[in-house]
Amino acid sequence: LWRGKKDLGSEALQAAAALKLAKRDSKALQEVLASKVGRLVKLDLLALLHALQRHDEVDLAFQVSPCFLVFERARKEVWYKPSVPLYRDMLKSLARNGRVEGVYSLFETIKQEKAEPHIAMFTEVIDIFVGSGRFRDALKVFEMMKDSEAPPNVRTYRTII
């Protein structure tokens, strides 16, 4: 699954494999985070996060997913700065996997970090919810959007309709 990815270094590949094996056991997951993920440099950590998002490692059956744990680990690093593209990718990954509460929680995190959500973030999440038949969730995100500093645009209205 992870082989052949040029953007992942060997340490990140090992961390990805260990996360995949440990994702069903919270104790093992914490050990992997401490021993493997904790050693990654910035580029490898971000590459690992993007790889987990690409492979939809946002597991519905478990409260805490490897992808979210790696994201939280990245947020604690000294070099971390709120990033619209990173947030957008996390929101899309959560929405694709039906993690509605995770979407709302991440929007709150974005507000707490004073990184106001971008129109594209809201619109892409709305688009994913509409595409998967989750119309109520799409409308909730639309209402959040209207209350934010990123008012709906033409694309957003087309998506809702």
UniProtKB/TrEMBL annotation:
Ranges of the PPR repeats in the UniProt entry: 83-117, 118-152
Q: Could you name the domain of life of the organism this protein comes from?
A: Eukaryota
Q: Which UniProt keywords apply?
A: Repeat
Q: Tell me yes or no: is Repeat among this UniProt entry's keywords.
A: yes
One GO process term, biological-process aspect: Group II intron splicing
Gene3D superfamilies per the record? Tetratricopeptide repeat domain (1.25.40.10)
- GO MF assignments: RNA binding
* Family annotation (NCBIfam families): PPR
Q: What's the name of the protein?
A: Pentacotripeptide-repeat region of PRORP domain-containing protein
Q: Which organism is it from?
A: Selaginella moellendorffii
